[in-house]
Predict the 3D structure of the following.
Amino acid sequence: MGINEPTLHIAVPVMDELIALPRLIKALQLQTVKDFRIHICVNQPESWWNDHGKRRICMDNQATLMYLESLNDDNMVILDKSSPGKGWDGKNYGIGWARKTLMDHITGLAGEADFILSLDA
């Protein structure tokens, strides 16, 4: 990243999005801003691992993590809040909680001149 140049931080909460996510990632990688980071939070409640009706979402999220890691993209930060033992506990979960987690993470890294953009997958 350039010195004194603002960085664009793109926050993307993700749950059960493996089908749509590759198009979004491709579009973001093709944008013209040079200093950017894509921050993705793959998330779900921890209890869904024990819920037969939600198990498909858990498996989709695991496949999503594998896809994202396979990209080996230095401009991408992956927050895993879905793998066994890493999901949300209690009543703090969902897209709002994922977005808050992303914003807290990004504001801990971003400089005063940086920009933060929040998208949906």
Observations:
- The first helix runs from residue 21 to 30.
- DSSP finds three helices and four strands in the chain.
- The helical segments are 21-30, 55-71, 95-107.
- The CA atoms of residues 46 and 118 lie 24 Å apart.
